[in-house]
Amino acid sequence: MWNAMRTFEAGDFSSWLREGNFIIEPFATYYVLLGFHAIGMAVVVGICFMLSSRILGFQLVVSMAAARHMLRLAWWGFWLNLASGVLLILAQPRREFMTELFWVKMAVIVWAVLAMRSMGRGLAAVRPVADARGGVVELAPWSLRVTALMVDLGWLLAIVSGRLVGYTQPPPPL
Amino acid sequence: MIMNPAQLEWFKQAWPGPLVRSTSWFFSFGEILHFIGLCLLLGSLLVIDLRLMGFFKKLSVRSVLSFLPYTLFGFLLNAVSGWIFFTSNPASYIENPAFLLKMGLIALAGVNALAFTLLEHRRMLLIGPGEDTPALSKALAASSLLLWFGVLLLGRWLPIFTVGTN
Hints:
heterodimer; A: mainly alpha; two-stranded antiparallel sheet; 7 helices; B: mainly alpha; elongated; DUF6644 (chain B)
């Protein structure tokens, strides 16, 4: 497996991801991918923060139907993050796999994604109830509020571990 | 050169520059703050600007504008953490064309936000669910998203244009 990865890293595709240019100089492919990775992160994490705020009761004027639309946008951010993340790993798989914090980051991402799926199911189950002033309000149950906090915590830990990966990586293996 | 050596030295000695240079953790702490800030800033702006552009029409504009405090808090976090980075090595930033362009785009985004506040904000509060927004609001919202995503990309691309200065 290790030897297969070494051979892959020496190949044209991995070398291009790691050291090549994206269409024109000086736009290094690796940094272009990092840019897309940051956009994906901003979309998925940012939208999840806004959704959690709504679920926790801060933006009650936002309907749950609209919140579900927002969650769909968050998933687009996640897919962009996943695609760019896989390519970033393929640029130097052995170095990534040797970094302990990389595995921590993967674990908390799985946690955040599972919590996001659970949040989506929870959003669909919220029903409007009458409020004291004769109107209707969509209040999230406690289980959904806890799930929203789990989503936020998962993404926060992913950001922290992702930032620290760069500082704890070993030198590129021979 | 935009700044003379004396000005650069002043920024270099300003808090927390010496602390960032003497510790191994402060810069990465700043990066974590910067990323959280940009998620809050762009996450809230996405919801607001997409509604102004005609998406999420089930929402009133007033309801999406309730996310604005997150935009401001995210910007504040980014400004504070950006100051941490800048004081760590002002010369390398000031000589980096991507950094200068990034600052230019932030200034333009500020002008764009001011234009929205002065020209459209009050009118937008009356736009209810299902209603469309005027063309000027759509244009200002689209340019806001373009400018902020440009800021994000330039931030990630700073190392491409870094000149080796200490």
